[in-house]
Specification:
By secondary structure, this protein is α/β, with parallel strands linked by helices. The chain folds into 5 domains: about 5-75 and about 780-805, no CATH class; about 80-240 and about 740-770, von Willebrand factor, type A domain (Rossmann fold, 3-Layer(aba) Sandwich); about 240-340, Sandwich (Immunoglobulin-like), CATH 2.60.40.10; about 345-600, Class I glutamine amidotransferase (GATase) domain (Rossmann fold); about 610-735, Immunoglobulin-like, CATH 2.60.40.1930. Strands 16, 17, 18, 19, 21, 23, 24, 25 and 26 form a 9-stranded mixed beta sheet that branches. A 9-stranded mixed beta sheet has the order 27-28-30-33-32-31-34-35-29, with no helix packed on it. A 6-stranded mixed beta sheet has the order 5-4-3-6-7-36, sandwiched between helices. The two termini are about 50 Å apart. The relative contact order is 0.13.
Length: about 800
Amino acid sequence: MPGGHQVLLAGSGQAWLWLAFGVLALALILVLYRYERMLISRRSGLTLLGLRLLAAAALVSLLFEPIVTRSYREELRGRVIVGIDLSESMETVDTDRPASESRRLARALSLSPAEPPEILTRREIARRLLASPAVAQIAAEHALEASGFARGLVPGTPADLAKLMGQPAQTGSSASSLTDWSQVLSLAVRDSEQAPVTGVVLLTDGQHNAPGELSAIADKLAARGVPVYPVLIGSTKAPRDVAIAAVKAPGVVYKGDSASVAVTLKLDGFAGLEIPVTLERPGAAPMRQTVHAPSDGSRPVVSFRVLLDTAGPQPLTVSVAPPPGDARADNDRRSVTVQVADDKARVLLVESEPRWEFRYLRNALTRDPRVEVDAVVFHQPELAATASTTYRAALPARVDATGPGSPPDPLGAFDAIVLGDVAPSDMPATDWARLEAYVAERGGTLIMSAGPRSSPLLRTHETLRKLLPILDPRPVPVDPASINPAHAGLPPGVGIAPAAAADLEAWPMLQFAADPSQSRAIWAALPHLPWVVAGKTKPGASVLASLPGAGRTDDRVAVIAAQAYGLGKVFWVGTDGTWRWRFQVGDAYHHRFWGQVVRWAASDKLTAGNRLVRFGPLRPQVSEGDGARIQARIAEGVPGVSPDLLVAARVFKAGGADENASKSPEPRGEAIAVVPLRALASQPRTFEGMAPALPPGAYVVRLDVPQMASALEIDRMSDVPQASLHVTERDSPERIELAVRRDLADRLATTTGGRVLSDYEAARLPALLHGRSLESVRTEETTLWDKPGPLILFFALLTCEWVLRKRVGLP
């Protein structure tokens, strides 16, 4: 028991043997006593008997291996881990901190009237708390370990970290663009030979925006009895701040197209004011809009339509001009890069006969300078004078050959195939199989534009059923009396509208205006369609447009839908009447819809190269930490292309005067990565590889095909295809979400048995941690059987017995 002594017998496992030995020794000693009693006096005999019994008892006791234990209580000096937030959000100044909190913090930090808390950054407040008497008292009573944290850990002593925090922060660094609590919390659950952890103190503004949840590590801390004490630095009231919260822009557009740029603004604390927003673009005047700051804290979205008529990477910079009192100036600008491709999308229209939908669609795409159109019409009248037809009458023929060297299917040359009102009987089974392979294996886009001829067979034809993104397609009943008053001259029909769940910014073909609400209003005013086929979307498919009813769209049935299929994608338009959208407005909506559908279909086109090879990243702009997929596609007419062809991409840092210009920048220095491109079995003459994750910045990617440089016309340095790659910083709320978050800190403290403190309450930490001092019961063991003392006692008894025996005349 604590504070007492105990005797343990380590050799008790053989107790029966030692007891038997003791009984035998006792018996022999008694027999010897009776024999010697006849020769010596009674007194001498009893003395010898006693000495012999004591010696035997000592020997038997030693055979039991006795151990004496002494237990007592001891107070341990536990470890306290202090984590200091070094992320970008700690550069915030809480200019609107409540007056009562400001006074309490001024007293806690012993600030002079000339230095109110409203002029100190959170980082500076944390530095002063780290050097405060409260932390010094914790260090005196506990073993204190300090670490800074943001994206990673910065271990050091409190003095080292205080010195680091006194230096200007490196804004814009990827190391401080993210806050991860898990790393400093993990220090408390690592197995260590050091003293146990008494508690964890976090000096932070409550931001934790790293991937993953903290629940697992919080449970481990709770199981080990380690409480967490978050000290929230700053105010839960957001400071007045104007910021660019997000910018959305397409990664690639065609030369001459307009890119839709959506800018989300944060306008905290400036309700009612007019805030100017500017978009700067190379080679053109800035575009400006003015936004009225809302009073409800919502975040308005400003949309720009930017005409891009110069090929190459186009940097676009959006900025706001905040009124006086803006908390942070480093969140007022943000840039994105849009890759402008000087290329055309190749489209094949496939129809049974030249219906109205086909004619208007072909004419609209033919007028589009960025689209190259070919057409197949299976049933068309012959021209009397020439006995020829206007369009192709069959799909481009495929050479009947198999094996590695066989020519690829000519359908693979098209970026999109529009399958119109085609009956299954119009094409042989081999052509339907070619269409499916075009999507699933080549990665092409199939656009299905339904019509009455094909509608009855959509539910029975096996290939069509697999390709369709909807289930059980059926015609929508039309009320003969449903005349649209806005278009009284048109026949009755049904209207369609973007689905409620559809993100108009993600689907450009749904965008009829810069503002999503305006787009939905335009859709609601479009002419009704007299023939519509709709169905329920398949799992994994996306519903884009459906039937409106009761004031909203019914997302359970889709009229326009899309889905991924193998390596490609399928786009479904369940009507043959989109040409009616031209009524009284011409190309405004009909051409915009189909032009954006084609551009979406060809969105993975490579931006660099020549007539023999196309090359570049599939996504010219990736986020920090993501690799970039790079492809090279060699034209069909180039001989000598085999799967084992040596193809590589060399990645360089972009440099020179053109780094931020509109044309492609030049490579700087040596290649920082060489990416092998390997042949894709599913796409002939296509080679692909994955570039490693790169730091944020601008890069140049060059194609290297040493065995075929001359054949591909890239044997001169000026002819080498090169593409731009931009690696952007990951979107982080560090500079945007400036109010102190308390919710996560409350959950962590509740789970672990800790407590959340405000920055002006930091002086309470020593008392809370002192109550968590650790006590330990220590036990000291002393073994008797292997010590010289018991052995000396045994031989001393035997010596006394021998001397007495000799004195009384015994042998």
